[in-house]
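ARCHIVE CARD
Drawer: 12
Card no.: 0347
Subject: one protein chain, sequence and derived structure
Cross-reference: see card 0346
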Amino acid sequence: MTIEVRDLVKTFGTFRALDHVDLTVDSGELLALLGPSGSGKTSLLRIIAGLDWPDSGSVIFDGEDALSRGAGERNVGFVFQHYALFRHMSVFENVAFGLRVQPRALRKSEDEIRRRVKELLELVQLDWLADRYPNQLSGGQRQRIALARALAIEPRILLLDEPFGALDAKVRKELRRWLRQLHDEIHVTSIFVTHDQEEALEVANRVVVMDRGRIEQIGSPAEVYDHPATAFVHGFIGESIVLPVEVVEGKVRLGDRILGISPDGAEAGPSRLFIRRHDVVLGAPENSTLQGAVKRVRAFGPTQRADIALAADKGETVIEIDAPRDRSLRPGDIVGLAPQRYRIFAA
């Protein structure tokens, strides 16, 4: 199932949740909508699901107008953040619910329903919990059951709204690997909303980065991380050092100091220098692009993280860098910093 979104606009009072959004989702793709709260990702998902309508624009499923159909006619499976399981029903009956309430002309026989539910519980690896109730399950188990219930009606599209948001970090990691493997088996066109960049980069085929109702960039996880198209994408994805600089006569100036780096095609004027923390190499102060004083050091597994006050800026700008544990760093040390990769965007 291919999804096409064209020139979609959605407002709530004076707030524009979606601002002329265009997007194509390929058949069988697992796409992530990534962005901060208020970026428009959930509004877009709800419109695709038929739970909300746009002010203008179109949504097309395989060449057919989806907006002319209600949510129940779009054959979309929806998984919510907080499971939405029926507490008074067993796991088996929760998964069977969508099949039992289908119109009589479409409803499967009882034997077929039981066979389908058994297949789905085996697919999500929870067939041994069929007789239990939601309050007897862990959060991760509940979310798997919610996904099985969404898949029971054999949806053409699967939509997931922050599916792992209510779970702890360890369970989230386990479930996103499981979701990736599950998608590789079922190949249902799927869109999931998240504000967790690690989740989006690990699970999705493509990532749509959104901010303030607009799409900032669409690309593979590697593309949006390694080649961010805008300052927002660079700052939102990954951990970046951001410094206020100015491009003057083809040179990059930080405060009163001229940095020995190319302006990277940036036009003259106030700009921002973006550097991934892991792209900074420590060196001798006299031979490095930046110099600073170590303020604080703490260990993080095989690396150490240091707060460094830049000596070249007016006032004091403190940045964080990562360094190997075998590099001796103590508060008060003067160090040089050489960016291996960087981007400069207009301020």
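Annotation on reverse: DSSP finds eight helices and 20 strands in the chain. The radius of gyration is 25 Å.
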